[in-house]
Write a structure and sequence with these properties.
InterPro entries: DUF2716. This protein has about 150 residues and is an alpha+beta fold. The chain is about 30% helix and about 20% strand. The chain contains three helices and eight strands. It has helices at about 10-20, 55-75, 130-145; strands at about 5, 45, 75-80, 85-90, 105-110, 115-120, 125-130, 150. An eight-stranded antiparallel β-sheet has the order 1-4-3-5-6-7-2-8. α2 (about 55-75) packs antiparallel against α3 (about 130-145).
């Protein structure tokens, strides 16, 4: 299986479930952030450490850590880009759609059962990692790249 763009029906169904399960509130208003009800056990990092990274070394490390963690914890993922195409793909795929870094839009990786993934918030400039297995797999490395977490969900 390769990267597959979700058809209209699947696209609507996945986004509808994401809105419902995570109480997604897209907004540029900081009083409405973090944008989702962060799942219990999730950890959220600020992405400001990437601001002083002219060679993109930290960004490359961030992407590598998240990809390695997701590959270790899941066989298949959804990649969601708010108001754009959504994808389903095996973690073994060589080229992944999107990035965990929210480059101007909400970028989300999710397992098909929604048990783990990442939520990149472009305006809060954060990355939330959720699902016990994924959090355990990548927290230490993400902290080394991004600094101490901004928050942890109880």
């Amino acid at each position: 299986m390769s990267v597959e763009t979700l058809g209209d029906s699947d696209h609507r169904q996945v986004w509808h479930r994401f809105y419902a399960d995570f109480a997604f509130r897209p907004s540029t208003n900081r009083f409405q952030w973090p944008g989702i009800s962060e799942p219990p056990g999730s950890v959220t990092w600020s992405l400001t450490a990437l601001d002083d990274d002219p060679e993109y070394l930290l960004l490359d490390r961030l992407v590598s850590v998240v990809r390695r963690g997701l590959t270790a914890c899941a066989d298949e993922l959804y990649a969601l880009d708010w108001h754009h195409d959504a994808y389903r793909f095996p973690t073994a795929a060589e080229d992944w759609p999107l990035s965990p870094f929210p480059d101007g839009d909400y970028y989300i990786y999710l397992t098909p059962d929604f048990r783990l993934g990442t939520f990149g918030h472009p305006w809060e400039y954060t990355l939330c990692v959720f699902g016990d297995e994924l959090v355990t797999a990548i927290s230490a490395e993400l902290t080394a790249v991004l600094g101490e977490p901004l928050r942890r969900s109880a």
